[in-house]
Amino acid sequence: MNIQMLEWALDVTKGSKGDLLELYCGNGNFSLALARNFDRD
């Protein structure tokens, strides 16, 4: 996985409100990395 893509996605979602919905059926590289920027209720 391209580290720069993950770093960019983390930067643009920092402080986001709401939920994350990843529609890509893969191994969850983005879901796992981005989970820290979203609340779980």
TrEMBL record:
It is an enzyme of class 2 (transferase). The keyword Membrane does not apply. It holds the Pfam family tRNA_U5-meth_tr. It comes from the Bacteria. GO terms for molecular function: rRNA binding; tRNA (uracil(54)-C5)-methyltransferase activity, S-adenosyl methionine-dependent; tRNA binding. Keywords: Methyltransferase, S-adenosyl-L-methionine, Transferase, tRNA processing. Its EC number is 2.1.1.-, 2.1.1.35. InterPro entries: SAM-dependent_MTases_sf, TrmA_MeTrfase, U5_MeTrfase_fam. SUPFAM superfamilies: S-adenosyl-L-methionine-dependent methyltransferases (SSF53335). The keyword Metal-binding does not apply. GO terms for biological process: methylation; tRNA processing. One of its GO terms (cellular component) is cytosol. This is tRNA (Uracil54-C5-)-methyltransferase. It comes from Obesumbacterium proteus ATCC 12841.
